[in-house]
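Problem 12. The chain below contains 100 residues. Write out its predicted structure in token notation.
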Amino acid sequence: MAEKKVTKKAAAPKAAAEKKETVKKVAAPKKAKAALVINAENVGFKAGDVYQALATAGKALTVAEIAKAAGIMNEEALLGLGWLLKEGKVADVDGKIALA
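Solution.
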């Protein structure tokens, strides 16, 4: 009589079948702040930008408004204003800066 051979099927590993693809979320890289270069040439150019912004506006502006109009950072606007204040080209008018 032939003996019936009993074999066990290898069960497919459930872990592999149920393994879900995980996506690792990576934080967006922080924007690097532009380096502020302080030398006589750069500060002189920023003073020119500030002067042009004030001349174009034709009225007294805040530091933030000057920076926005000139397309520069607030710190650069302050550097330019310091230069212009020292030369007597700008003055304070009710908490705003205007051409002297």
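Discussion. DSSP finds four helices and two strands in the chain. Students who got a different answer should revisit the alignment rule from Section 12.3.
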